[in-house]
Automatic annotation (TrEMBL):
NCBIfam families: PRK09485.1. The keyword Methyltransferase applies. GO terms for molecular function: metal ion binding; S-adenosylmethionine-homocysteine S-methyltransferase activity. The keyword ATP-binding does not apply. Keywords: Metal-binding, Methyltransferase, Transferase, Zinc. This is Putative Homocysteine S-methyltransferase 4. InterPro entries: HCY_dom, HCY_dom_sf, Hcy_S-methyltransferase. Pfam families: S-methyl_trans. Residues 4-270 form the Hcy-binding domain.
Length: 270
């Protein structure tokens, strides 16, 4: 069921469980995600698959569904012949699909929807989302992000997930872009060691969100598990906000092969 309890209230009260990777669930169901639009392609071609993926995670115990809009951008859809109006419909559909799954789950616990907004590099589909430093100004990045964030916000998710952000400059642009939208946000960096992927210290990167009223949680995602604990502690200390953490398994994205390269196994530490 959906809830009158806001996600911010739930985070203040205790632990909330996120879903797993959308691509993992879709690939396990037999869907080919090799296209540059990744899972966003299915919004146009097979939207029921997106709903089914969300439903599987809700039934497995997730409290929050992250939408299939990570690579859903006007520019990315345009490359595939999808015009502006249809692209906006598909972005809104990403939120609606997660809402539909929440209703179909028929569970007694509260469920929430996080509308994913990936970094500029996700649209480029060249691996730069794990490097940042695109050669764009903060103003240019804000102009890129704001239109789709407006569309996602209008679909009324519970939160905007500003995720896999590799660069503090892009975080600055995103924080500007969510102002006045009327929907809270979380901000998660992709990190390596104690720095963003672009090399900025995490203390400085997280400090950008400390006084942003729109931001209800901060943290990391799509990073090695061993980097997550340190980054989460820094995020909590610098911002005083709840922390959201969803690392990957430590693999590295190979943009040329369009595949993840496995990390060497390491003994468990916790």
């Amino acid at each position: 069921m959906t809830s009158t309890l806001t996600l911010a209230e739930a985070l203040a009260a205790g632990t909330v469980v996120l879903d797993g990777g959308m691509s993992n669930q879709l690939e396990s169901a037999g869907h080919d995600l090799s296209d540059e639009l990744w899972s966003a392609r299915l919004l146009a071609q097979q939207p029921e698959a997106i709903t089914e993926a969300h439903l599987a995670y809700f039934r497995a115990g997730a409290d929050v569904a992250i939408t299939a809009s990570y690579q859903a951008t006007f520019e990315g859809f345009a490359k595939h012949g999808i015009d502006h109006d249809r692209a906006a419909e598909l972005m809104a559909l990403s939120v609606e699909s997660a809402r539909d799954a929440a209703r179909l789950a028929r569970v007694s616990r509260p469920l929430w929807v996080a509308a994913s907004a990936g970094p500029y590099g996700a649209m480029l589909a060249d691996g730069s989302e794990y490097r940042g430093r695109y050669g764009l100004t903060v103003d240019e990045l804000e102009r890129f992000h704001r239109p789709r964030l407006e569309v996602l916000a209008a679909a009324r998710p519970d939160v905007l997930a500003l995720e896999t952000v590799p660069d503090a400059d892009e975080a600055t642009a995103l924080l500007r872009a969510v102002r006045g939208l009327g929907v809270p946000a979380w901000l998660t960096y992709s990190v390596a060691g104690g720095r963003t992927r672009a090399g900025q210290p995490l203390e400085e990167a997280f400090a950008l969100a400390a006084d942003a009223d729109e931001v209800i949680a901060v943290g990391v995602n799509c990073c090695a598990p061993e980097d997550a604990d340190t980054a989460a502690a820094i995020a909590a200390r610098v911002t005083g906000k709840p922390v959201v953490v969803y690392p990957n398994s430590g693999e590295t994205w190979d943009a040329d092969a369009r595949a993840w390269t496995a990390a060497p196994p390491s003994p468990p530490t916790r």
